[in-house]
Amino acid sequence: MTDSIATVTDLAERARVASRTLALLTRADKDAALLALADAVDAATDDVVAANAEDLQRGREGGMATGLLDRLTLDADRVAAVADALRDLAGLPDPLGEVVRGSTLANGLQIRQVRVPMGVVGMIYEARPNVTVDAAGLGLKSGNAMILRGGSAAASTNRALVAALRSALTAHGLPADAVQLLEGDHDAVKALMTARGLVDLLIPRGGAGLIQAVVTESTVPVIETGVGNCHVYVDAAADPDKALAIVLNAKTHRPSVCNAAESLLVHRSVAADVLPDVLRDLAGAGVVLHGDDATREHAPDGVVVEPATDEDFDTEYLALEMSVAVVDDLDAALAHVRRHGSGHTEAIVTEDRAAARRWTAEVDAAAVLVNASTRFTDGGEFGFGAEIGISTQKLHARGPMALPELTTTKWVVEGDGQIRG
Amino acid sequence: MTDSIATVTDLAERARVASRTLALLTRADKDAALLALADAVDAATDDVVAANAEDLQRGREGGMATGLLDRLTLDADRVAAVADALRDLAGLPDPLGEVVRGSTLANGLQIRQVRVPMGVVGMIYEARPNVTVDAAGLGLKSGNAMILRGGSAAASTNRALVAALRSALTAHGLPADAVQLLEGDHDAVKALMTARGLVDLLIPRGGAGLIQAVVTESTVPVIETGVGNCHVYVDAAADPDKALAIVLNAKTHRPSVCNAAESLLVHRSVAADVLPDVLRDLAGAGVVLHGDDATREHAPDGVVVEPATDEDFDTEYLALEMSVAVVDDLDAALAHVRRHGSGHTEAIVTEDRAAARRWTAEVDAAAVLVNASTRFTDGGEFGFGAEIGISTQKLHARGPMALPELTTTKWVVEGDGQIRG
Fold it and tell me: What region holds the Aldehyde dehydrogenase domain (chains A, B) (predicted)?
């Protein structure tokens, strides 16, 4: 543990020094550097793909699941896409320097609250090497030095990517320590999580287990991302066509991500009208269904709906699987969401203004939707142009996090000799 | 510990229920309630003063220091002031409902980010019973249910105050559980600090030891407040009159608070001009001085400047005591602040635009000041009308925290059947 603390302290101190240079760069400086980084990633394609082949082979030998192997894979096309994402970042506005608030006080002091970088940001994530490049780019654009801890299954790929990024930074006259990779065992991660004062912010990104561990063990401030047990509630006043389209899209468009719907609630008064079609279409799309007794009564012939347990309603399936319940009214739907929701995204389908108004006011979640698919809670969809994760906590950032969420502010106060009387 | 966890769980669940009512109140509802609470505090003056007398007697018997006894004291005048602070809160704008950002997406979805309450907020503070009422009022206005843990030395006073507040809430048709007092030993505090998911935010307010303990032991998100090792740097291009006035004010106006200056840095080229007057006036105001060798050479006859140790430069005296160093240039001043500052408030005195620009850009602190006393970093001075503390962390809030800093946001998305393609 002592060695790990020394390693992290050294990394963090070098990151701090680099961060001081990053904080003073102009937007033009940073955008030029991002384009240079993109070119460097392109130029390193062969090295990266070869390194990735090593990781993939180790993964296959270790019995890694197909889905994880897919996320780990970086072929030439994916490397090109990762480089293009850096170019896209160059096109986004600089979050730094924005004056958030400001005024002139009665005594003539001019005060303004200005967006500045966090400083040193750590990221802990799984074996998804595209995140390595994304995080490096987001860090550079937001003026933060990044300490990256990717899943060890992607170690070779991450090393190749970070080597390419660091040489490009040096060649561009910028500090290589703007992007550093933290290697080592769990002690290294533990040292990062407890490097309070050295690291300004830690962002875990991955499954519920990883996030829970980081949140519990860290003394560094953390932004929790990503667990989404999202509901679609079909209200008594729902348009049945919209309900059908939204439920299908929310569940099946991309079931493996956090903004996919996991649970369907239907008002009892429309259950007989809505459920048969919805259940048939979900089953037709390959969705495994778990329903309460009332739901199962409305299953059309040939559609299997397993009995739902309380655990089903708490489960983020991240797969073609869904829990379904019939509720007595809007109050029961709100109570169900309070009990089982994870505060990510909750949608109502209704044509009733009063029901929509109650839903948006009373549901406590990062995003509350009316007549829209849960899949829209996304930095790209919201027009942010980049996303480092979706925060499900209330402190600092809530919902899709992009460049401004990677900044803090400082108060700049300019006077002419003012003292307090 | 099991009992403490059960107690805190019960408190937090009742707070959650209350918070749902608070979140839906209009500004008019809340302001009327704040005025009713103020009247209730006034009406309870005799009870509160009597309870406070018990606390004071226990304090005196236990050998409590004079300064702490003063902070603990609530006489009739102070009770009236505390009630008036609630009336002032009624005059402030409602932070909730503000649309922070919003747009209509290409697909017609209308998105807006709206300010909403945190939900359940815990406060851990020392034996200062005025904080009990302030926190209750700030919580009500910002729509948050508060769990208050005041120093045990103020237990009787806090009980009397919270009883008055809770009866007034009930009489006003609001849930009494909007304000709850957490009693019990350290296990109770530990249970509060680890009530993740039940408590949305924890704010420690007090000395460095208390804050450090809360920050280290909590799994609930925390906002760190208050340690201020603040510097005044007198630049080569300083106006000597402004320098003298600002240093004196920053050190002596109210030495016991976090925005008081603790350390003075003087550019070598003006040390001979500036230091003799400054040191004489500081000493004349009763300030104990600790200086480096160069500083001591400029001490006028009869002014004692003790040799400063490295520890002196790290010390937040919170008293009439100051460390003083001569620095070679602006870079050396910046390096000194990086090494010894606590990220609270850092002031430069200069008439040189370039030096001022470098100071405000390069110093990493909640507030960076030019030609003004450090004492201005304050919610009241900034025009916020209320302050729950001064954050020295970068996540969520930095600098003086008022009503908006006690809120989070949610994204409200309104559509007409949109699905993702």
Answer: 7-280
